[in-house]
Amino acid sequence: MGSPSRRAVVDAVLERYPRTFAQELGLRSLETPSPLFRLLVMATLMSARISAAIALAAARALGQEGWNTAGRMADAGWEARTRVLNRSGYARYDERTSSMLGDSAALVLDRYGGDLRRLRDAAERDPGTERRLLKACKGMGDVGVDISFREVQRSWTELAPFADAKALGAARRLGLGTDAGALHRLAGERFVNLVDGLVRVALDGAYDEVRQAARA
Fold first, then answer.
1. Would the pTM count as exceeding 0.85?
2. 46 with 91: CB under 8 angstroms?
3. 8 A C-beta contact, residue 47 and residue 140
4. Are 109 and 193 members of one domain?
5. Structural domain count of the chain
6. 81 near 101, Cβ under 8 Å?
7. Are 47 and 17 contained in the same domain?
């Protein structure tokens, strides 16, 4: 049996992973301060050497406490944040991450009045400057920024089309091309979901399963 078509592979990835990480967290739109801050929190948590499922569960638990803005996260206090992270399975990094989330919340409040749209304005919508300013938040290195950029590019259109190294590595292994432009031409409006799906393929090592589904 020959190799499946690239369209069939795209469909197989999206059938297996239909939602982005942000969508799983309940962030349907990234146009306002609260979901943008929650995305920052999620990206910080997912940057650690811990499973994406645990990081997502921890981000969800923090949200369920009502800490969905920079102000509420800062007011929550280190001990409360640590306790929620710990019981969410984020035990190896709970204390350090609690401190980082508090520091980042304080920075977002101080520099941007709690509204990360003002970071975008301060960067004059330049992706390189946006990356540099986001990395000023504690715990946000290039991995965390990549996670944020993957998700927010629907709203911050200056970033699009964006695919990070992990997504592009999976795309190469699946024969989908070697750059974000090629993936965008294949997926169209489904591009952001495809990029996130490719990251999940890489994290789960699900290459054979995707190929098999694409041949069905």
1. yes
2. no
3. yes
4. no
5. 2
6. yes
7. no
